[in-house]
Design brief:
By secondary structure, the protein is of the alpha/beta class. The chain has 16 helices and 18 strands. A five-stranded parallel beta sheet has the order 7-4-3-12-13, sandwiched between helices. The chain has a four-stranded antiparallel beta sheet with strand order 8-9-10-11, covered by helices on one side. It binds zinc ion. The site of zinc ion has 4 residues, from helix 7.
Length: about 475
């Protein structure tokens, strides 16, 4: 398996620390809100990476944290506490918010066929580990106390910018600049390990520490949680590209200062999902979630296919037009699989040969688009039906598109009628949108009336047009 390693800026063959085994870590969500589909693009591609490794025969152990404390609205430790913000917004406690959005996250993942990592650990479970690591960093002189908080001293490192990018302006993308500088910091990029005295007097979650009652900074959790479950040497660390700085840079700084040796060999970063206005975020534009896509009649796996069709190292632009094309491609794909004849017996030699081809193609820096092309090659081939199905089932372990389920579904006229209706309604809604864009309001009204005749009512909401049967 080869991946692009952000640390060396090269595509490299993965050489695990222990032969045949992969210790893998993923930065989990901050559970103060729903995940938007841009975040989920990262989790889909990381899921494919994990499954490709397993497909190639590696024994993978994957760990993920859940951030339920310490993540401020700026990744550089300033602004408002995200969990507190969520709790205030919904008049709930921080723990209620954490529980609700953790469940929502895994429910979205399940809909997208994203496997739950082997270990999932909330940050609030590991306070003792955080305190221990901070104590060692203080002892070793990598940390200091100022204004009663504990900070990591980035000036103690020969090379803080491990990802090689020295252009701070570029690095600070994603870090809001409308937040005030923390005057306790000795160096601009020093970061908080432990907040004792902070502006959040009403911080709900706080713990005793050698430095007073307080709570951990955001970055420390990933270092501690990964070491707790994977030990001192890690093979692959994953995350979205916006985690590269400052989060992953800080994780490496504190982990390697604590350990006194190299920590993780390969860094896997998934690029942004953009909308037509630029980077997608929770703070601007339509807030795109899996539930929103479902409410518009899309199968979540259409979005998975959308993500798989492009390379994870390229920014991907989301639009409903592109998603519609993908929905139609997915439908055609399922129909092709469904049309495979029940004939012959499985040719194990062929299954193995095609397995190896897929491992080689997708194993080359997670080239999922080429993997899908190979899937079409299987469909087009003159292999017998039983062998085709066996190969498709094998590939679908990685692709996660429920391809064989299409064959299991017994002919249910209602559900196929439903699919037709959804396609028709979505088409008419798109047509109405075009008409409105062209200021042809008469035509737009006509389409709305036609839909109403069919028993479909439209509602224009801030998230776009929703429809329901009346
Ligand atoms: Zn992390």
């Amino acid at each position: 398996m080869k991946i692009y390693n952000t640390l060396t800026r090269n595509v490299e063959q993965i050489k695990p620390n222990v032969e045949g085994k992969i210790a893998m870590y993923t930065c989990g969500p901050t559970v103060y809100h729903f995940a938007h589909i841009g975040n989920l693009r990262s989790y889909i591609m990381e899921d494919v990476l994990e499954k490709t490794l397993r497909f190639e025969g590696y024994d993978v152990k994957r760990v993920m944290n859940i951030t339920d404390v310490g993540h401020l609205s700026s990744d550089a430790d300033s602004g408002e506490d995200k969990m507190l913000k969520g709790a205030k917004r919904e008049h709930k406690t921080v723990m209620e918010i954490a529980k609700f959005y953790t469940d929502a996250f895994f429910s979205d993942c399940a809909k997208l066929n994203i496997k739950t990592p082997d270990v999932v650990e909330p940050a609030t479970n590991c306070i003792d580990e955080f305190i221990h690591m901070i104590e060692v960093l203080l002892e070793k002189g990598y940390a200091y106390q100022a204004g009663e908080n504990i900070y990591f001293d980035t000036s103690k490192l020969k090379n803080y910018y491990v990802f090689g990018n020295q252009n701070e302006d570029e690095l600070m993308v994603g870090v809001r600049d409308d937040v005030t500088e923390d005057e306790n910091k000795r160096n601009k990029n020093d970061f908080v390990l432990w907040f004792t005295k902070s502006k959040f007097e009403d911080q709900a979650l706080k713990w005793d520490s050698p430095w007073g009652v307080g709570y951990p900074g955001w970055h420390i959790e990933c270092s501690c949680i990964s070491m707790k479950h994977l030990g001192e040497y890690m093979d692959i660390h994953c995350g979205g590209i916006d985690n590269m700085f400052p989060h992953h840079t800080n994780e490496i700084a504190q982990s390697e200062s604590y350990l006194g040796h190299k920590w993780c060999n390969y860094w896997f970063h998934v690029h942004h999902l953009n909308d037509e206005t630029g980077k997608m975020s929770k703070s601007k534009g339509e807030f795109l979630t899996v539930s929103l896509l479902e409410s518009k009649g899309y199968n979540p796996l259409v979005y998975r296919l959308f993500a798989l069709q492009s390379h994870y190292r390229k920014p991907l632009t989301f639009s409903y037009d592109a998603l519609d094309q993908c929905a139609s491609a997915y439908k055609k794909l399922l129909n092709k699989v469904k049309a495979i004849k029940d004939e012959g017996s499985v040719d194990d030699g062929e299954v193995k040969a095609w397995h190896n081809k897929f491992a080689e193609i997708v194993g080359n820096d997670v080239n999922t688009a080429m993997g899908i092309t190979l899937l079409y090659d299987v469909l087009k081939s003159d292999l017998n039906g039983a062998t085709k199905k066996a190969i498709i089932g094998d590939y679908d372990y990685v692709l996660g598109l429920d391809l064989l389920k299409a064959c299991e579904v017994t002919e249910d006229s209602n559900s196929s009628e439903d699919a037709e209706l959804v396609a028709l309604v979505e088409g008419m809604i798109a047509e109405r949108k075009e008409a409105k864009k062209a200021k042809d309001f008469a035509k737009a009204d006509e389409i709305r009336a036609k839909l109403l005749d069919m028993g479909i009512a439209l509602e224009d909401t801030r998230e776009g047009v929703k429809w329901k049967r009346v």
